[in-house]
Specification:
elongated; single chain; mainly beta; three-stranded antiparallel beta sheet; 1 helix
Length: 84
C-alpha cells in the first residue's frame, strides 16, 4: 500500500557576476550553497557573497516533477520501480 508520495521540482536562476565584489581573475575555486557564492582566491583568501535567489521561486515549474518517490509498506522507491 502506498502511504506517501514525494515530488521533487526544479527551478533555475541566473545572476550577473559584475555586480559582485569578487576579483574573478583571481578565483581558483567556487561553489554555490544555500543561495550564497563561496570562493577561494589564488592567495588562499576565502569569500562569500549572498545571491538573490528569489527569482528561482518565480521560475519554479510545478507542471511535471523531475523525480517522484513512493513510500510503499515503509520502503521508498522511485516511481515505476514500486513492488507489487
Amino acid at each position: 500500500m502506498i502511504t506517501e508520495i514525494e515530488c521533487t521540482y526544479e527551478a533555475h536562476f541566473s545572476f550577473r557576476t559584475d555586480g559582485l565584489d569578487v576579483e574573478w581573475e583571481r578565483v581558483i575555486e567556487w561553489y554555490i550553497k544555500y543561495g550564497n557564492l563561496f570562493y577561494t582566491l589564488d592567495d588562499g583568501t576565502e569569500g562569500e557573497e549572498a545571491l538573490c535567489v528569489e527569482d528561482a521561486y518565480d521560475n519554479l515549474d510545478v507542471k511535471w516533477p523531475s523525480k517522484i518517490l513512493v513510500c510503499r509498506n515503509g520502503h521508498w522507491v522511485n516511481k515505476g520501480e514500486e513492488e507489487e
